[in-house]
């Protein structure tokens, strides 16, 4: 029997081992550093960024201004040259890509900028058509698509108006239609709903969701609009050039649901649960691998994301299987609470994915709730 | 061409702001006007240099090899005229005599001490069909009288103040040519040029009597300034020209009207500062046009930087933008050319009336200016396109 080497590099909430993990990655950021300026003026804007975005995911990037989220967005959008590290977009490595490659990749992307950037001289239809023409979409198909999009965005009666006679929100919606007309594989948007009212803003994100679901279109947007946070599959928070958190929303809620099922976590507030989920890391074990060994010092708390384990207690030279645990169940908390060595050995019976929480973080969670520890003690007392 | 099916962005951007378009067209029209003025003046002045050639009858002309311009007094023996007239395909060959240095005309109205000025005297045998002007052929009978001549009505007025509008008055004016009395029996119209301030036309006999010193020994009419050759009506011009050229010794050039015209204009264009001055004028017009056009296109680009950056983000290539700007330049030049052409037309008409210069809008010169205008707008577009290619989509987020 071998001891598993803990894989602590990936946070549990990144969703890297959750459902749909096998989906192709639209964006793969690896060890990405970015700098502005030269020589003495050179400042680093991004520090060792790592991020994976799956096909069909809607990603919302948040963070204070100057946190580098816009820089990361322009890098993903091929609008800046990659300095250091790896950046793969739609299967193409951008670091060292040629101009032609980049122009090619750009055609698979839809950009929605904060400013509408519409040509005053062109009608709404013609502005949107500029994007369609580049793709060589047939005129008939383009016309249908443009009319459909503009109508969906409540501009059916303004199709042949020039920007001069449109309101700010209407112009922004024309720009959104322009970003979507060619059915891009990746949409990059900067505050797309900032200029829109609740209803039209909702219509825009609904369109995003439809394209993500029906066409596998990936959406990455920077927004501070709390009204649309609910559409995010993943929320990436950046601070000072670092990706501080990268949370697959569904996965985070799955973890919270798992934890909530147990009386000792049930009393925790959603905030504490989310914090706990955020700090968990992924660990994987092969069948037959020893996850924890009896009498070893306790260092991690384990939640089973997928797979099965056996719990074996050795007493007086005899091994006895005391329990079998599966998805959503947890173990390893006793040694952390009591600060004593492990009281049992856990062996994976199949390929198993765990989400683990370190001792310090676990302790921090405990401190959040005064009732938590006593509860836990009673649970533990009940168990032994 | 796929460009035609696409949104005509160049055209739309150009015509969207009507006020700016009007300013642009005024600017380009002005440059067109400048160029037309230069081209027009140049052509008018060159045309006036060859007005005599244009006014000659005949198909082929004989000039001394040494005569690099009409004003150069290089002559050839009369023998050549006789030789040419005997050539196959030639209907007739006739001499024209011309004198400038000895030909000093004095208006004696204010007495004997009046100052004389050089004037070109043209002599011809009155029976010879060499001059086109009806005014001359109609008055040939007057020229049979000794010491008579016709004067060019456009002779420089400050030098030769003769009342050309009234023949009777003119005939009463006392005048002196090369120290001998002359009666001006009528007038005709030819025009002045850089070398000649006026013209007299007279019979060959009178011409000989005024300028006996043309030839040091012998008959002054034995040396000819210009030979006029008529080909037979059915003969081929180039063929006759070559035949005459073969026949005559090497001291004369045998030229068609076109060749002679080109030779004469070529001299003024290439060997005098006149050509350079007009070229400089045209270049100035061109440069003014480039500057104006550059300004128009540059402002248009500068005002739409974020829109163009958006197009680049979409994946539009540099080639698209270069093509668009070239299209914009061509459109600007064509629509700017029209008001410029109309204004030039008006100016030509006005100046022709004012100066007597032959300012005529011809198809070739209009085409030449249109070509320059298109070139001008494309050049300024290509200068401005660098600004467009600096549109950075990274600045949009």
Report on this structure.
- The complex is a heterodimer of chains A (about 375) and B (about 400).
- With about 375 residues, chain A is of the alpha+beta class.
- Chain A has two domains: about 240 residues, Rossmann fold, CATH 3.40.50.300; about 120 residues, Jelly Rolls, CATH 2.60.120.10.
- Chain A has twelve helices and 18 strands.
- In chain A, strands 6-7-8-3-9-10 form a six-stranded mixed beta sheet, sandwiched between helices. In chain A, strands 2-1-4-5 form a four-stranded antiparallel beta sheet, with helices on one face.
- In chain A, strand 4 and strand 5 form a beta hairpin.
- The two termini of chain A are about 25 Å apart.
- The relative contact order of chain A is 0.14.
- With about 400 residues, chain B is of the alpha+beta class.
- Chain B folds into two domains: about 170 residues, no CATH class; about 180 residues, no CATH class.
- In chain B, about 55% of the residues lie in helices and about 15% in strands.
- Chain B contains 15 helices and 13 strands.
- Chain B has an eleven-stranded mixed beta sheet with strand order 5-4-8-9-7-10-6-3-12-1-13. A two-stranded antiparallel sheet of chain B has the order 2-11.
- In chain B, strand 4 and strand 5 form a beta hairpin.
- The longest helix of chain B is centred in the C-terminal third of the chain and has 38 residues.
- The two termini of chain B are about 35 Å apart.
- The model of chain B has no long low-confidence stretch (mean pLDDT about 90).
- Chain A: InterPro entries: AAA+_ATPase, ABC_heterocyst_DevA, ABC_transporter-like_ATP-bd, ABC_transporter-like_CS, cNMP-bd_dom, cNMP-bd_dom_sf, MacB-like_ATP-bd, P-loop_NTPase.
- Chain A: Keywords: ATP-binding, Hydrolase, Nucleotide-binding, Transport.
